[in-house]
């Protein structure tokens, strides 16, 4: 009896924390139309800030807890939210869900990097508020911290209820979500409301982070991932309804507490279930939509570029020291994974937040098969691709109806589930599996050439696909599902095939990855690995093979730069951040700039450069001072 | 292909190819279609006119399967297709264009039509045949000169003709055209009118939403007037033009009443 | 009536505007004198709605000038113009369906000189039906009631200029009558109105001037009676003219 009560209390406390986080997420999303994947990461960084102020070395002796909370939740977090909105999010309101998702993924990656740089891993115990004291309730000790958490969540619920229901600002925040233009015609200021919602959202993330820290401790990933629970609760409220969000959060907290064995998997299962049962969205129609993409090269150019790449890698493997050759091979493996994103995201228009999970499936398959007789390594590689493709098709089935943000969240839930359940089982706890390489390519240099060749073959195949029938259909389906349906295309089959092919490509890359590493463990395929992958794929240019190559090499270089030239670490994150922000303008990524630069350079040869072009829309005479202006005859 | 030839030879049948019966569609508190009933016959151009917001595009959404009606039936060639998915209806020969344009923006004009031909003909057709068919269709609607342009970079009028070419690629028996002339100049509109007559003469049923009343009067065999989601009047073009209710729906007054 | 002034409340000079490279307004010249009602008519696709978007601050003109009360306002934001006394009611329902009637009216106070109570009082005095449904979500009101709620903004916001896009679209004649009574009432209190309509008859009944758009330009402007004669040709084709003339 008292055990049940104990679990209930713990569940309520967790649920209260989730509710605070989830309500911030919903508030930000409804007002600004940007789903903040980095919501948990903001909470994590703010929890570290709180630790720094109260127990860290920044303030001698440390601030009292209440002062630190006030400073973090009342000043630092809102200011941070405002800055993020101003710098990154403002122009994303109208952009497709995919782009805004990737930008917030960029923020998440940058925040984790920032936290790891500022606060290197050591034990940082965080005391609950009011120490260990509490009240006894039917034989169960309910700490004052528990009571505080529940109290705060109730206060947040009441505060949001009053804000959104009773104040003009709150009503306008609900209105701006529906029709920004109409609100502006009323005289409301959509941008100001959006800034405000990010400030409040960040403050709520900080509050949740600080309240939950004593329960989960200060950890970069645990705290960031707490947000999956918040996602689940928010999605139950369809990212709109705060009461449903609160209810979802509490139910989640209780479920997690009762089913302690499945604790890690429950939020994701919950999220997955909620997503699968979401009602069908109607096919959007209206307006021609196209994505700027770099031109698709012809077969001859592809063959020439491919041969050149393999030759260059071969030359490098002869000239460079072994360590550098392995790094190059790693970059090429990443590039191969990114090819699978070119197919799925670049051509198909779907965002996957769990592509590295399929890499894991491929690697594990090769590891399990490669040791047994009768499975020569190249065949095992193909088997890995096949298993990954089958898993991809299986995942695609329940999420077929989802699009955009919801689909991306479903992939995240899937990745998390595989990470926590399947991979843990496949590897056993803390164990690792050896992965064989093809016998003919056992040496580092030979293996690098092998990887380059696989990349080239896959890239050439992908480009051939894009030039052909299926490529046209995929792009058509991305641009207008409604038109495809009314032309007679059965999109179910094509979408399942798209997911399966993309997963299969990632699975093949997984076999290469395993072979390169020699041994693999569960930690290699955490869901978090997928986020920088997606980010750099998109920053590199997710609509082109060149972009995948660029992104793969940069993804390989990032940690190396960070560890070998720590001073550059911050700079690199800044660059990635800038890359992500610039996506709002050109979804073609860096590769698109590269091609443009190439065309520009060629044009220099032909004719002298033209002078700078005046931007006529910003001509000075068209700027008007309307501050304090009134049209009314009698004020 | 065999089926298509079959119905062509049979020519005009007595039963309409499309029968829309008592369709009701509501969104929010507004009734977009209120027991609307009308039909379309092979070999004829049937006009659907009415003021903005009368429910014309919603009607097309219901017939093409993009929106499920709250009540009522859609019959096509005698079969009830009210619950059939949009891609199945397309395969049965129902094709439509979109008022707000749904061209594939990242593909070239030629590729837009090629995709449609490929969807229709499946994997067996040779790419040379597909490309040729697409080219012929562009030529037929008169936009072959734009074949290499990206569809999101051509003028509205060209995009509309592109959508028309794309629907023809799936060899439709019933064509739903939603304001095909908007964005065209007078000469292009005239050419479009000729093309519509030609397409009808080949045995297709054409349902035409149009604001250019001259075009409607010029090419339609039969006109339905929609207002407040209901069919206000049906008849030949002359009959419709002289109908007082129609004039009132459009102008707010009729000619007999001196202004 | 406001004192007569020489500067019109709205003046458009050679206004050009485009959507994604396609020019929709091709040199519009239009004047709305202070305190007058101007009907802007024309067939679908003539650019009427685009014109309103360019004036209300949602679409930046590519060239030409928009003058409001003598001030050049190209590129001013919609919310600033709204607060300065420009009330725009776009076509469609023009309300927030997820907010209650009261909450919708609360947002009117952003642009209004009057306070919250005053706004409610004016709205409910004119449209008692809204008072009965004050707690109801706007999305559950009938089309006509939603339109009334949108018009209530014009009553509460004390505008100097009211832009109306197709107020009668899709509404039953009785409701249209009621809306046009409100337009007449606002006009009598000195508000200038530019009303865009396809439904020409009703607008011509209250307008002092009428302008006809076609192909992105104003092709005719004058007293309602003058313009009325040209309308059937523009709307129903030349055949009708032959039939009656």
Helix content of chain B: 25-40%
Sheet-strand content of chain B, in percent, reads: 15-25%
- H/I helix tally of chain A: 24
Compute the gyration radius of chain A: what is it?
26 Å
Question: Cα distance, first to last residue of chain A?
Answer: 70 Å
- Placed side by side, the strands forming the largest sheet of chain B appear as 6-7-8-3-9-10
Strand content of chain A: under 5%
Please trace the helix and strand order of chain A, writing H or E for each element. Answer: HHHHEEHHHHHHHHHHHHEHHHHEHHHH
Beta strand count of chain B: 10
Structural class of chain B: alpha/beta
- What is the residue-mean pLDDT of chain A, rounded to a whole number? 83
Structural class based on helices, strands and sheet pairing of chain A? mainly alpha
Query: What is the helix content of chain A?
Result: over 70%
Q: What string, H for helix and E for strand, traces the elements of chain B in order?
A: HEEEHEEHEHHHEHEHEEHH
Question: What is the radius of gyration of chain B computed over CA atoms, rounded to a whole number of angstroms?
Answer: 18 Å
Oligomerization category of the chains in this entry: heterotrimer
List segments of chain A where confidence is low: pLDDT < 50 over at least 5 consecutive residues.
607-625
- On the 0 to 100 scale, the average pLDDT of chain B is 86
Strand order of the largest sheet of chain A: 1-2
**Apparent shape of chain A:** globular
């Amino acid at each position: 009896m008292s055990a049940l009560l104990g679990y209930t209390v713990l569940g309520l406390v967790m649920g209260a924390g989730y509710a605070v986080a989830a309500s911030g997420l919903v508030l930000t999303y409804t007002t600004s139309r940007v789903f903040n994947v980095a919501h948990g990461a903001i909470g994590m960084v703010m929890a570290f800030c709180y630790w720094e102020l109260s127990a860290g070395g920044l303030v001698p002796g440390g601030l009292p807890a209440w002062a630190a909370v006030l400073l973090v939740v009342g000043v630092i977090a809102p200011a941070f939210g405002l800055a993020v909105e101003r710098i990154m999010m403002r122009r994303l309101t109208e952009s497709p869900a995919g782009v805004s998702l990737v930008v917030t993924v960029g923020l998440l990656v940058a925040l984790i990097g920032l936290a790891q740089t500022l606060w290197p891993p050591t034990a940082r115990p965080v005391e609950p508020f009011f120490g260990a004291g509490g009240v006894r309730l039917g034989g169960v000790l309910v700490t004052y911290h528990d009571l505080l958490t529940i109290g705060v969540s109730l206060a947040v619920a009441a505060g949001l209820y009053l804000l959104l229901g009773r104040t003009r600002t709150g009503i306008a925040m609900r209105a701006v979500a529906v029709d920004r233009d109409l609100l502006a015609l009323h005289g409301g200021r959509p941008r100001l409301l959006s800034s405000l919602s990010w400030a409040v959202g960040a403050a709520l993330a900080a509050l949740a982070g600080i309240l939950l820290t004593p329960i989960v401790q200060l950890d970069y990933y645990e705290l960031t991932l707490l947000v999956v629970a918040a996602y689940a609760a928010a999605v139950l409220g369809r990212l709109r309804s705060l009461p449903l969000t609160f209810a979802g959060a509490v139910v989640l907290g209780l479920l997690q507490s009762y089913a302690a064995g499945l604790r890690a998997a429950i939020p994701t299962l919950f999220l997955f279930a909620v997503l699968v049962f979401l009602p069908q969205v109607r096919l959007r129609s209206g307006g021609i939509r196209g994505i700027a993409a770099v031109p698709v090269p012809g077969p001859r150019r592809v063959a020439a570029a491919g041969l050149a790449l393999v030759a260059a890698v071969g030359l490098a493997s002869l000239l460079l020291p072994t360590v550098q050759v392995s790094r190059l091979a790693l970059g090429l493996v990443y590039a191969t994974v990114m090819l699978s994103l070119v197919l799925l995201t670049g051509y198909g228009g779907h965002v996957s937040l769990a592509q590295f999970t399929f890499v894991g499936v491929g690697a594990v398959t090769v590891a399990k098969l490669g040791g047994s007789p009768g499975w020569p390594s190249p065949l095992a590689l193909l088997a890995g691709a096949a298993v990954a493709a089958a898993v991809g098709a299986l995942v695609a089935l329940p999420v077929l109806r989802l699009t955009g943000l919801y689909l991306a969240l479903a992939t995240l839930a899937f990745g998390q589930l595989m990470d926590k359940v399947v991979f843990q089982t496949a590897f056993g706890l803390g164990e690792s599996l050896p992965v064989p390489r093809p016998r003919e390519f056992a040496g580092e240099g030979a293996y690098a050439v092998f990887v380059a060749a696989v990349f080239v073959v896959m890239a050439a195949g992908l480009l051939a696909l894009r030039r052909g029938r299926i490529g046209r259909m995929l792009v058509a389906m991305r641009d207008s599902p409604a038109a495809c349906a009314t032309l007679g295309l059965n999109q179910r089959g094509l979408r399942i095939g798209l997911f399966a092919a993309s997963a299969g490509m990632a699975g093949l890359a997984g076999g290469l990855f395993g072979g390169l590493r020699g041994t693999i463990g569960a930690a290699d395929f955490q869901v978090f690995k997928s986020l920088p992958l997606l980010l750099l794929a998109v920053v590199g240019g997710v609509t082109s093979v060149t972009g995948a190559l660029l992104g793969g090499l940069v993804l390989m270089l990032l940690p190396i730069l960070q560890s070998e030239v720590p001073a550059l670490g911050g700079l690199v994150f800044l660059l990635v951040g800038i890359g992500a922000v610039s996506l709002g303008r050109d979804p073609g990524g860096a590769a698109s700039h590269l091609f443009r630069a190439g065309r520009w350079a060629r044009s220099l040869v032909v004719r002298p450069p033209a002078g700078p072009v005046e931007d006529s829309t910003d001509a000075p005479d068209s700027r008007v001072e309307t501050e304090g202006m009134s049209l009314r005859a009698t004020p | 292909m065999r089926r298509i030839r079959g119905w062509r030879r049979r020519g005009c049948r007595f039963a309409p190819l499309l029968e829309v019966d008592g369709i009701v569609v509501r969104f929010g508190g507004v009734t977009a279609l209120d027991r609307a009933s009308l039909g379309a016959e092979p070999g004829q151009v049937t006009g659907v006119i009415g003021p903005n917001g009368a429910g014309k595009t919603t009607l097309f959404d219901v017939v093409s399967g993009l929106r499920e009606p709250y009540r009522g039936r859609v019959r096509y060639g005698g079969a009830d297709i009210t619950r059939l998915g949009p891609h199945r209806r397309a395969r049965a020969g129902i094709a439509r264009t979109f008022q707000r344009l749904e061209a594939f923006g990242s593909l070239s004009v030629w590729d837009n039509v090629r995709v449609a031909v490929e969807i229709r003909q499946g994997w067996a057709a040779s790419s040379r045949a597909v490309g040729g068919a697409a080219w012929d269709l562009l030529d037929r609607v008169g936009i072959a000169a734009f074949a290499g342009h990206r569809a999101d970079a051509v003028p509205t009028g060209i995009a509309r003709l592109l959508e028309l070419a794309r629907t023809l690629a799936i060899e439709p028996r019933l064509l739903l055209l939603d304001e095909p002339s908007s964005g065209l100049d007078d000469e292009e509109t005239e050419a479009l009118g000729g093309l519509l007559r030609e397409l009808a003469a080949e045995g297709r049923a054409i349902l035409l939403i149009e604001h250019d009343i001259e075009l409607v009067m010029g090419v339609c065999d039969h006109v339905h007037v929609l207002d407040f989601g209901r069919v206000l009047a049906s008849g030949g073009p002359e009959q419709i033009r002289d109908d007082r209710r129609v004039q009132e729906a459009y102008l707010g007054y009729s000619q007999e009443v001196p202004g | 009536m406001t004192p007569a002034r020489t500067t019109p409340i709205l003046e458009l000079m050679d206004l050009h505007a485009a959507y994604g490279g396609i020019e929709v307004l091709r040199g519009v010249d239009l004047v709305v004198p202070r305190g007058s009602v101007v009907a802007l008519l024309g067939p679908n696709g003539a650019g009427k709605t685009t014109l309103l978007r360019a004036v209300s601050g949602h679409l930046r003109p590519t060239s030409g000038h928009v003058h409001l009360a003598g001030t050049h306002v190209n590129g001013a934001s919609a919310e600033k113009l709204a607060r300065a006394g420009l009330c725009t009611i776009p076509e469609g329902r023009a309300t927030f369906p997820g907010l209650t009637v009261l909450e919708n009216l609360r947002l009117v106070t952003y642009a209004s000189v009057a306070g919250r109570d005053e706004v409610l009082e004016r709205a409910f005095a004119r449209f008692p039906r809204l008072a009965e449904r004050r707690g109801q979500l706007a999305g559950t009101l009938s089309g006509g009631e939603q339109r009334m709620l949108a018009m209530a903004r014009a009553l509460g916001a004390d505008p100097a200029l009211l832009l109306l896009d197709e107020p009668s679209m899709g509404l039953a004649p009785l409701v249209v009558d009621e809306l046009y009574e409100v337009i007449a009432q606002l006009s009598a209190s000195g508000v200038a109105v530019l009303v865009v309509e396809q439904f020409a008859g009703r607008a011509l009944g209250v307008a002092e001037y009428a302008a006809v758009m076609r192909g992105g330009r104003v092709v005719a402007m004058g007293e309602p009676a003058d313009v009325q004669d040209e309308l059937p040709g523009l709307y129903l084709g030349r055949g009708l003219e032959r039939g009656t003339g």
